[in-house]
Each structure stands twice: as C-alpha cells, then as structure tokens.
Design the sequence.
C-alpha cells in the first residue's frame, strides 16, 4: 500500500470547517483513499473513502486531487465531538485476500471551543 | 450487517499471569480478522491476522499468540504477561466496503 503523510496535529475552531490534508504521492491506480478516525479509548471508525471522484456523506467530504497524489478530508461544521485522531490510508481493497492495513500516526485534531 | 464483539472492555492482570481476549463476529462468513495493539500515546500496531480457521500470520515477534478455532472467533493469548503487554487491544474485520470494521477494544493493564 502507498505510504501516506499527514500533519501530526491540527486545531480548528468549533463551528468552522476542518480541512485535514493527506499526501499519498505514490498511490497506485487501484488504491482507494480511506479515512478513519479514532476517538479516545474507542476503535477507529470509518468516515469515507474514494478512488478518483470527490465524495460526500453525512459525516464528511473527501476531495481528491486530479493526479490523486493528495486528498483533503473536510468536516464541514466541526464540533467538540470531532476531536480525535484521523487516519488517512491508501489501500487496494480487492488486491489480495491476505492484505492488511498498516496505520500511520494520523493527525490529532483538536476542536477549540 | 457485520458486527464485531470484544470482551472484556477493561482488564487488570498481574505480571506473569495468562491472558485470553476473545473476538467474535456476526453477519459474515470466512472473514479476514486482525488483532491490533495501541500502547499509551502510540499508534496502531498490527499484531496478527487470519484469513481462515487455523491460519494465523504474525506481524511482530512478541509474548503473544493468536488462534482461530472457529470461522467467526479470533483469540489473543499469552502464557505469561509482561508489563510491556499493557495497551489497548483491538480486533478488526475486513469489510469489502468500509475497509475495516473495528471492535470496541479491550484496555489491558498489567501490574
């Protein structure tokens, strides 16, 4: 799987949009970009994923650059409950039966009241 | 829908005691299952994964072992716990859409 690079931490004011960047310059054509978040003392939670097109769901939006070398996760109206560690993963979903996700250190997002 | 169950939620064990953490899944058959550990303030470390009954792959050499006695059951064990085994243990299930679905985790403190 392609290596991803994320800033170690970010701050965002409550109510504002939180924009979390991720660099995946070595991503291959069959690798999806996945985002998870981990709230303290809980298991990581799926947020969103995409291949080439921008995606939106009830939690967030995912913007992937045209060259697919980077992406941005957008939380449109951040709340204190969005304080968590956010992981960006580049992963080929159906490549091998025994493939596995290796998590990096992610971005620790602090929502400021 | 697929669900994953882990227990117990918290565990305090003395050094040298045995360990058994259980993970069971529902709503799927023949899943890929994974054990991760997160030490305090650290990232997620993949410990073991299994693609089927009796099939275990170890990612890092350590004081732990894993077993998969049934299709939907994944067990993490130790014969003698070390202080360094303390951490947050997570079981995960590979999902074709969501990537991984994680259990709620077990916080293990070895004293």
Sequence:
């Amino acid at each position: 799987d392609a290596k991803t690079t994320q800033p170690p931490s970010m701050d965002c004011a409550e109510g504002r949009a939180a924009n979390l960047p991720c660099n995946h310059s070595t991503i291959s054509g069959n690798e999806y970009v996945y985002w998870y978040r981990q709230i303290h003392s809980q298991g990581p939670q799926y947020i969103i994923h995409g291949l080439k097109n921008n995606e939106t769901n009830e939690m967030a939006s995912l913007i992937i650059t045209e060259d697919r070398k980077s992406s941005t996760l957008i939380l449109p109206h951040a709340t204190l409950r969005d304080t968590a560690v956010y992981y960006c993963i580049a992963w080929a979903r159906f490549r091998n039966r025994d493939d596995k996700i290796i998590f990096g250190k992610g971005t620790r997002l602090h929502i400021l009241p | 829908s697929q669900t994953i169950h882990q227990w117990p939620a918290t565990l305090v064990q003395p050094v040298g005691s045995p360990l058994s953490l259980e993970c069971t899944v529902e709503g799927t058959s023949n899943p890929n299952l994974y054990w991760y550990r997160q030490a305090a303030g650290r990232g997620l470390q993949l410990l073991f994964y299994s693609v089927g009954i009796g099939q275990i792959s170890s990612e890092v050499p350590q004081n732990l072992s894993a077993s998969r006695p049934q299709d939907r059951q994944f067990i993490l064990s130790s014969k003698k716990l070390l202080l360094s085994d303390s951490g947050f243990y997570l079981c995960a299930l590979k999902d074709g859409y969501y990537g991984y679905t994680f259990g709620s985790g077990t916080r293990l403190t070895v004293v």
About this structure: The radius of gyration of chain A is 14 Å. Chain A touches chain B at residues 32, 34, 36, 38, 41-46, 49, 87, 89, 91, 93-94, 97-98, 100-106 (CB under 8 Å).
